[in-house]
């Protein structure tokens, strides 16, 4: 969607921060939808996801000089979104109840969303924040342990242990659900 007016993402961001409404609109269109989907998977509700993405845009604008164009703007922004999600989860110690999970299910636009996927979402949202973030990045976004480590500022071994604990907790959750039936 980028126009030929800017040669690269760094020029586009600089123009947007400098007051160009065209550049700003282009960035918002480029980044918003996927960023909200990412934040929603981590945070669990549209409202929380939108709040996180809004905060991430504020940080992008405020710290625009740190973007050197070495990665795509999308990649750089998703890193900000992921960190904002983790910070929000740590700050709020956010845990969802069954009412919240029902609301989440209603908000999903994917027609192929199955009951099993809803159970998985419920199980993921019961994980501690770091485990939740790691499992979402690994399962939904195909991040490697190294990539997750960069996002969470952890080494690969620590991420491997985090993913192991997350998977073990998910397994316990489903085993307890099966025994209850």
TrEMBL record:
Secretion signal span: none
Superkingdom assignment: Bacteria
Protein name, as recorded: RNA polymerase sigma-70 factor, ECF subfamily
Pfam families assigned: Sigma70_r2 (PF04542), Sigma70_r4_2 (PF08281)
NCBIfam families given in the database record: sigma70-ECF (TIGR02937)
Domain RNA polymerase sigma factor 70 region 4 type stretches: 119-170
Species name: Polynucleobacter kasalickyi
Family stated for the protein in its record: Belongs to the sigma-70 factor family. ECF subfamily.
Domain RNA polymerase sigma-70 region: residue ranges: 33-93
Gene Ontology MF terms: DNA binding; sigma factor activity
Keywords noted in UniProt: DNA-binding, Sigma factor, Transcription, Transcription regulation
Gene Ontology biological process terms in this record: DNA-templated transcription initiation
